[in-house]
Amino acid sequence: xxxxxxxxxxxxxxxxxxxxxRELFDARLNIDDHPMTEGDLAAALREADVLxxxxxxKIDAALLQQAxxxxxxxxxxxxxxxxxxxxxxAARGITVTNTPNVLTEDTADMTMALILAVPRRLAExxxxxxxxxxxxxxxxxxxxxxxxxxxxxxxxGMGRIGAAVARRAKAFGLSIHxxxxxxxxxxxxxxxxxxxxxxxxxxxxxMDIISVNCPSTPATFHLLSARRLALMQPSATIVNTARGDxxxxxxxxxxxxxxxxxxxxxxxxxxxxxxxxxxxxxxxxGKVVLLPHMSSATIExxxxxxxxxxxxxxxxxxxxxxxxRVLPNKV
Length: 331
Ligand code: 8YV
Prior knowledge:
Blueprint: E1 6-9, H1 15-24, E2 26-28, H2 38-47, E3 50-52, H3 61-64, E4 73-75, H4 86-91, E5 95-97, H5 104-117, H6 122-128, E6 152-156, H7 160-171, E7 175-179, H8 186-192, E8 195-196, H9 200-206, E9 209-212, H10 226-229, E10 237-240, H11 249-257, E11 263-266, H12 277-284, E12 288-290, H13 299-317
Parallel strand pairs: 1-2, 1-3, 3-4, 4-5, 6-7, 6-9, 7-8, 9-10, 10-11, 11-12
Helix pairs in contact: 1-13, 5-7
The structure holds 2-keto-D-gluconic acid.
Keywords: Oxidoreductase
Protein name: D-glycerate dehydrogenase
Domain D-isomer specific 2-hydroxyacid dehydrogenase catalytic: 16-326
Protein backbone atom coordinates (compact mmCIF):
# COMPACT_ATOMS: atom_id res chain seq x y z
CA UNK A 1 0.00 0.00 0.00
CA UNK A 2 1.00 3.55 -0.65
CA UNK A 3 2.58 5.46 2.23
CA UNK A 4 0.07 7.85 3.77
CA UNK A 5 0.97 11.51 3.26
CA UNK A 6 2.43 13.37 6.22
CA UNK A 7 0.04 16.23 6.93
CA UNK A 8 1.37 18.74 9.45
CA UNK A 9 -1.16 20.93 11.27
CA UNK A 10 0.41 24.07 12.64
CA UNK A 11 -2.34 24.62 15.25
CA UNK A 12 -4.86 22.58 17.21
CA UNK A 13 -8.01 22.13 15.11
CA UNK A 14 -11.46 21.01 16.35
CA UNK A 15 -11.50 17.39 17.55
CA UNK A 16 -13.74 15.98 14.79
CA UNK A 17 -11.41 17.49 12.18
CA UNK A 18 -8.33 16.03 13.79
CA UNK A 19 -9.98 12.62 14.17
CA UNK A 20 -10.83 12.56 10.48
CA UNK A 21 -7.33 13.75 9.55
CA ARG A 22 -5.83 10.88 11.54
CA GLU A 23 -8.09 8.38 9.82
CA LEU A 24 -7.08 9.59 6.38
CA PHE A 25 -3.51 10.77 6.70
CA ASP A 26 -0.36 10.45 8.73
CA ALA A 27 -1.44 13.58 10.60
CA ARG A 28 0.96 15.41 12.88
CA LEU A 29 -1.05 17.41 15.37
CA ASN A 30 -0.16 20.35 17.57
CA ILE A 31 -1.79 18.97 20.70
CA ASP A 32 -1.01 21.82 23.10
CA ASP A 33 -1.65 24.43 20.38
CA HIS A 34 1.57 26.38 20.81
CA PRO A 35 1.95 28.99 18.05
CA MET A 36 4.66 27.83 15.68
CA THR A 37 8.01 29.59 15.75
CA GLU A 38 9.82 30.23 12.48
CA GLY A 39 12.06 27.29 13.34
CA ASP A 40 9.08 24.99 13.91
CA LEU A 41 7.61 26.09 10.60
CA ALA A 42 10.86 25.55 8.69
CA ALA A 43 11.12 22.06 10.19
CA ALA A 44 7.53 21.34 9.20
CA LEU A 45 8.17 22.52 5.64
CA ARG A 46 11.20 20.24 5.38
CA GLU A 47 9.22 17.15 6.34
CA ALA A 48 5.57 17.59 5.43
CA ASP A 49 3.91 16.41 2.25
CA VAL A 50 1.06 18.74 3.08
CA LEU A 51 1.16 21.73 5.42
CA UNK A 52 -2.03 23.05 7.03
CA UNK A 53 -1.22 26.54 8.31
CA UNK A 54 -3.43 29.22 9.83
CA UNK A 55 -3.26 32.98 9.98
CA UNK A 56 -0.64 32.76 12.75
CA UNK A 57 1.92 31.37 10.29
CA LYS A 58 3.86 33.63 7.98
CA ILE A 59 5.00 31.63 4.98
CA ASP A 60 7.10 33.96 2.86
CA ALA A 61 9.53 33.30 0.03
CA ALA A 62 12.53 33.00 2.36
CA LEU A 63 10.80 30.39 4.49
CA LEU A 64 9.63 28.50 1.41
CA GLN A 65 13.26 28.11 0.35
CA GLN A 66 13.60 25.71 3.24
CA ALA A 67 10.76 23.50 2.01
CA UNK A 68 11.69 19.96 1.11
CA UNK A 69 10.99 18.63 -2.40
CA UNK A 70 8.19 16.42 -1.00
CA UNK A 71 6.06 19.43 -0.01
CA UNK A 72 3.46 19.83 -2.71
CA UNK A 73 0.44 21.34 -1.01
CA UNK A 74 -0.23 24.13 1.47
CA UNK A 75 -3.88 23.69 2.47
CA UNK A 76 -4.60 26.89 4.41
CA UNK A 77 -7.08 26.66 7.26
CA UNK A 78 -8.67 30.01 6.48
CA UNK A 79 -9.88 32.14 3.63
CA UNK A 80 -7.28 34.91 3.46
CA UNK A 81 -3.91 33.81 2.10
CA UNK A 82 -2.17 37.14 2.63
CA UNK A 83 0.40 35.56 4.96
CA UNK A 84 1.39 33.02 2.32
CA UNK A 85 3.53 33.97 -0.67
CA UNK A 86 1.40 32.13 -3.21
CA UNK A 87 3.61 33.12 -6.17
CA UNK A 88 6.77 31.87 -4.46
CA UNK A 89 4.96 28.64 -3.62
CA ALA A 90 3.82 28.23 -7.23
CA ALA A 91 7.39 28.81 -8.43
CA ARG A 92 8.42 25.80 -6.32
CA GLY A 93 5.55 23.70 -7.63
CA ILE A 94 3.55 23.99 -4.42
CA THR A 95 -0.22 24.30 -4.72
CA VAL A 96 -2.08 26.53 -2.24
CA THR A 97 -5.72 26.09 -1.26
CA ASN A 98 -8.01 28.02 1.11
CA THR A 99 -11.46 27.60 2.71
CA PRO A 100 -13.91 30.00 1.05
CA ASN A 101 -17.71 30.05 1.42
CA VAL A 102 -17.98 28.26 4.77
CA LEU A 103 -17.10 31.36 6.79
CA THR A 104 -18.99 33.90 4.69
CA GLU A 105 -22.18 34.01 6.75
CA ASP A 106 -20.47 33.93 10.15
CA THR A 107 -18.15 36.76 9.15
CA ALA A 108 -21.06 38.75 7.76
CA ASP A 109 -22.99 38.26 11.01
CA MET A 110 -20.16 39.72 13.04
CA THR A 111 -19.67 42.55 10.56
CA MET A 112 -23.35 43.39 10.94
CA ALA A 113 -22.96 43.21 14.71
CA LEU A 114 -20.21 45.85 14.50
CA ILE A 115 -22.27 47.96 12.08
CA LEU A 116 -24.96 48.03 14.77
CA ALA A 117 -22.69 48.15 17.81
CA VAL A 118 -20.66 51.23 16.95
CA PRO A 119 -23.41 53.76 16.13
CA ARG A 120 -25.73 52.35 18.83
CA ARG A 121 -22.99 52.34 21.51
CA LEU A 122 -23.58 48.69 22.36
CA ALA A 123 -20.20 48.05 23.99
CA GLU A 124 -20.46 51.20 26.13
CA UNK A 125 -23.96 50.28 27.20
CA UNK A 126 -23.01 46.70 27.97
CA UNK A 127 -20.39 48.00 30.39
CA UNK A 128 -22.72 50.21 32.41
CA UNK A 129 -24.54 47.57 34.46
CA UNK A 130 -21.59 45.35 35.35
CA UNK A 131 -20.16 48.59 36.72
CA UNK A 132 -23.35 49.10 38.81
CA UNK A 133 -22.92 52.52 40.37
CA UNK A 134 -22.30 54.11 36.95
CA UNK A 135 -26.04 53.89 36.16
CA UNK A 136 -27.83 56.92 37.49
CA UNK A 137 -31.09 55.81 35.87
CA UNK A 138 -32.87 56.45 32.62
CA UNK A 139 -32.74 59.88 31.05
CA UNK A 140 -34.15 61.12 27.76
CA UNK A 141 -30.80 62.40 26.62
CA UNK A 142 -28.52 59.65 27.87
CA UNK A 143 -26.68 57.03 25.79
CA UNK A 144 -27.93 58.42 22.53
CA UNK A 145 -26.42 56.80 19.50
CA UNK A 146 -27.05 57.24 15.83
CA UNK A 147 -29.97 55.65 13.98
CA UNK A 148 -29.14 52.79 11.62
CA UNK A 149 -32.23 52.78 9.36
CA UNK A 150 -32.17 55.13 6.40
CA UNK A 151 -28.40 55.53 6.45
CA UNK A 152 -25.95 54.72 3.69
CA UNK A 153 -23.62 51.75 3.93
CA UNK A 154 -20.61 51.68 1.63
CA UNK A 155 -19.04 48.28 1.14
CA UNK A 156 -15.41 48.17 0.05
CA GLY A 157 -15.08 44.82 -1.72
CA MET A 158 -18.30 43.26 -3.00
CA GLY A 159 -17.28 39.62 -2.92
CA ARG A 160 -19.02 36.80 -1.10
CA ILE A 161 -18.66 38.39 2.34
CA GLY A 162 -19.48 41.89 1.11
CA ALA A 163 -22.70 40.62 -0.48
CA ALA A 164 -23.65 38.71 2.67
CA VAL A 165 -23.13 41.88 4.72
CA ALA A 166 -25.21 43.85 2.23
CA ARG A 167 -28.13 41.40 2.49
CA ARG A 168 -28.21 41.79 6.26
CA ALA A 169 -27.78 45.56 6.14
CA LYS A 170 -30.59 45.94 3.63
CA ALA A 171 -32.94 44.21 6.08
CA PHE A 172 -31.95 46.85 8.67
CA GLY A 173 -33.01 49.63 6.34
CA LEU A 174 -29.58 50.72 5.19
CA SER A 175 -29.14 51.62 1.55
CA ILE A 176 -26.35 49.67 -0.10
CA HIS A 177 -23.44 51.23 -1.94
CA UNK A 178 -20.23 49.55 -2.98
CA UNK A 179 -16.85 49.97 -4.52
CA UNK A 180 -15.12 47.06 -6.18
CA UNK A 181 -12.46 46.51 -8.83
CA UNK A 182 -15.19 45.27 -11.13
CA UNK A 183 -18.84 46.08 -11.11
CA UNK A 184 -20.95 43.27 -9.63
CA UNK A 185 -23.37 41.22 -11.71
CA UNK A 186 -26.61 43.04 -12.54
CA UNK A 187 -28.55 40.34 -10.72
CA UNK A 188 -26.72 41.01 -7.45
CA UNK A 189 -27.06 44.78 -7.86
CA UNK A 190 -30.79 44.35 -8.41
CA UNK A 191 -31.21 42.05 -5.44
CA UNK A 192 -29.39 44.47 -3.13
CA UNK A 193 -30.68 47.60 -4.86
CA UNK A 194 -27.02 48.53 -4.68
CA UNK A 195 -25.31 51.56 -6.14
CA UNK A 196 -21.87 51.02 -7.68
CA UNK A 197 -19.24 53.69 -7.11
CA UNK A 198 -16.37 53.45 -9.51
CA UNK A 199 -14.61 56.09 -7.43
CA UNK A 200 -13.81 54.95 -3.90
CA UNK A 201 -13.03 58.58 -2.99
CA UNK A 202 -16.49 59.73 -3.96
CA UNK A 203 -18.18 56.89 -2.15
CA UNK A 204 -16.22 57.49 1.06
CA UNK A 205 -17.26 61.13 1.12
CA UNK A 206 -20.93 60.27 1.04
CA MET A 207 -21.37 57.26 3.33
CA ASP A 208 -22.57 57.03 6.93
CA ILE A 209 -20.97 53.65 7.49
CA ILE A 210 -18.11 51.96 5.64
CA SER A 211 -17.50 48.23 5.81
CA VAL A 212 -14.19 46.80 4.62
CA ASN A 213 -14.67 43.39 3.03
CA CYS A 214 -11.89 43.00 0.46
CA PRO A 215 -8.88 40.71 0.70
CA SER A 216 -5.47 41.97 1.73
CA THR A 217 -3.25 42.07 -1.34
CA PRO A 218 -0.45 44.38 -2.49
CA ALA A 219 -3.18 46.34 -4.32
CA THR A 220 -5.31 46.85 -1.21
CA PHE A 221 -2.51 47.70 1.22
CA HIS A 222 -3.59 50.99 2.86
CA LEU A 223 -6.40 51.26 0.31
CA LEU A 224 -8.01 53.35 3.04
CA SER A 225 -5.08 55.73 3.21
CA ALA A 226 -4.82 58.87 5.34
CA ARG A 227 -5.99 60.93 2.39
CA ARG A 228 -9.00 58.72 1.70
CA LEU A 229 -10.03 58.34 5.34
CA ALA A 230 -10.04 62.12 5.63
CA LEU A 231 -12.72 62.23 2.93
CA MET A 232 -15.22 60.56 5.25
CA GLN A 233 -17.82 62.59 7.09
CA PRO A 234 -17.13 63.36 10.78
CA SER A 235 -20.37 61.55 11.66
CA ALA A 236 -19.33 58.38 9.82
CA THR A 237 -18.14 55.08 11.21
CA ILE A 238 -15.93 52.41 9.70
CA VAL A 239 -15.99 48.68 10.30
CA ASN A 240 -13.20 46.27 9.38
CA THR A 241 -13.51 42.49 9.57
CA ALA A 242 -11.14 41.86 6.64
CA ARG A 243 -7.48 42.62 7.34
CA GLY A 244 -5.81 45.34 9.37
CA ASP A 245 -3.37 46.48 6.70
CA UNK A 246 -6.15 47.58 4.32
CA UNK A 247 -6.60 50.63 6.57
CA UNK A 248 -3.82 53.06 7.50
CA UNK A 249 -4.34 52.42 11.20
CA UNK A 250 -2.30 55.40 12.44
CA UNK A 251 -4.30 57.75 10.23
CA UNK A 252 -7.55 56.19 11.44
CA UNK A 253 -6.53 56.63 15.07
CA UNK A 254 -5.67 60.28 14.46
CA UNK A 255 -9.02 61.04 12.83
CA UNK A 256 -10.90 59.32 15.66
CA UNK A 257 -8.89 61.11 18.34
CA UNK A 258 -9.50 64.46 16.62
CA UNK A 259 -13.26 63.73 16.35
CA UNK A 260 -13.06 63.86 12.58
CA UNK A 261 -14.59 60.39 12.48
CA UNK A 262 -17.37 59.21 14.78
CA UNK A 263 -16.29 55.65 15.45
CA UNK A 264 -14.79 52.39 14.32
CA UNK A 265 -15.46 48.69 14.81
CA UNK A 266 -12.34 46.65 14.31
CA UNK A 267 -11.87 42.89 14.37
CA UNK A 268 -8.49 43.00 12.63
CA UNK A 269 -5.33 45.03 13.22
CA UNK A 270 -2.05 45.96 11.62
CA UNK A 271 0.16 44.02 14.01
CA UNK A 272 -1.94 41.19 15.35
CA UNK A 273 -2.00 40.07 18.07
CA UNK A 274 -0.54 43.40 19.26
CA UNK A 275 -3.09 46.19 19.35
CA UNK A 276 -2.08 49.84 19.27
CA UNK A 277 -2.56 51.20 22.84
CA UNK A 278 -4.13 54.33 21.34
CA UNK A 279 -6.96 52.15 20.04
CA UNK A 280 -7.42 50.68 23.50
CA UNK A 281 -7.71 54.21 24.87
CA UNK A 282 -10.28 55.10 22.23
CA UNK A 283 -12.22 51.97 23.18
CA UNK A 284 -12.28 53.09 26.81
CA UNK A 285 -13.78 56.37 25.60
CA GLY A 286 -16.45 54.52 23.62
CA LYS A 287 -15.14 55.66 20.25
CA VAL A 288 -14.23 52.23 18.99
CA VAL A 289 -15.27 48.63 19.48
CA LEU A 290 -12.37 46.21 19.35
CA LEU A 291 -12.69 42.46 18.80
CA PRO A 292 -9.83 39.93 18.83
CA HIS A 293 -10.07 38.64 15.22
CA MET A 294 -13.12 36.48 15.90
CA SER A 295 -15.53 37.19 13.05
CA SER A 296 -15.36 33.67 11.63
CA ALA A 297 -15.05 32.03 15.04
CA THR A 298 -18.00 29.65 15.35
CA ILE A 299 -17.88 26.00 16.35
CA GLU A 300 -19.71 25.03 13.17
CA UNK A 301 -17.57 27.24 10.98
CA UNK A 302 -14.29 25.86 12.25
CA UNK A 303 -15.47 22.30 11.62
CA UNK A 304 -16.64 23.27 8.13
CA UNK A 305 -13.26 24.89 7.48
CA UNK A 306 -11.51 21.71 8.60
CA UNK A 307 -13.70 19.62 6.32
CA UNK A 308 -12.86 21.90 3.42
CA UNK A 309 -9.17 21.50 4.14
CA UNK A 310 -9.64 17.71 4.07
CA UNK A 311 -11.57 17.82 0.79
CA UNK A 312 -8.79 19.85 -0.78
CA UNK A 313 -6.06 17.53 0.48
CA UNK A 314 -7.88 14.42 -0.69
CA UNK A 315 -8.58 15.83 -4.13
CA UNK A 316 -4.95 16.83 -4.48
CA UNK A 317 -3.61 13.48 -3.34
CA UNK A 318 -5.96 11.65 -5.68
CA UNK A 319 -4.52 13.64 -8.55
CA UNK A 320 -7.51 15.95 -9.05
CA UNK A 321 -7.64 19.69 -9.07
CA UNK A 322 -8.44 20.74 -5.49
CA UNK A 323 -11.71 22.74 -5.46
CA UNK A 324 -10.29 25.72 -3.57
CA ARG A 325 -6.99 26.23 -5.31
CA VAL A 326 -5.67 29.79 -5.00
CA LEU A 327 -4.04 30.96 -8.21
CA PRO A 328 -1.01 33.23 -7.83
CA ASN A 329 -2.37 35.79 -10.28
CA LYS A 330 -5.58 36.02 -8.26
CA VAL A 331 -3.75 37.24 -5.16
C1 8YV B 1 -9.38 32.98 10.62
C2 8YV B 1 -9.70 34.56 8.63
O1 8YV B 1 -9.28 33.73 11.76
O2 8YV B 1 -10.19 32.96 7.02
C3 8YV B 1 -9.68 34.03 7.26
O3 8YV B 1 -9.17 34.70 6.34
O4 8YV B 1 -9.29 35.64 8.87
C4 8YV B 1 -10.29 33.73 9.72
O5 8YV B 1 -11.19 32.84 9.26
C5 8YV B 1 -8.01 32.60 10.16
O6 8YV B 1 -7.65 33.08 8.96
C6 8YV B 1 -7.76 31.15 10.16
O7 8YV B 1 -6.49 30.86 9.64
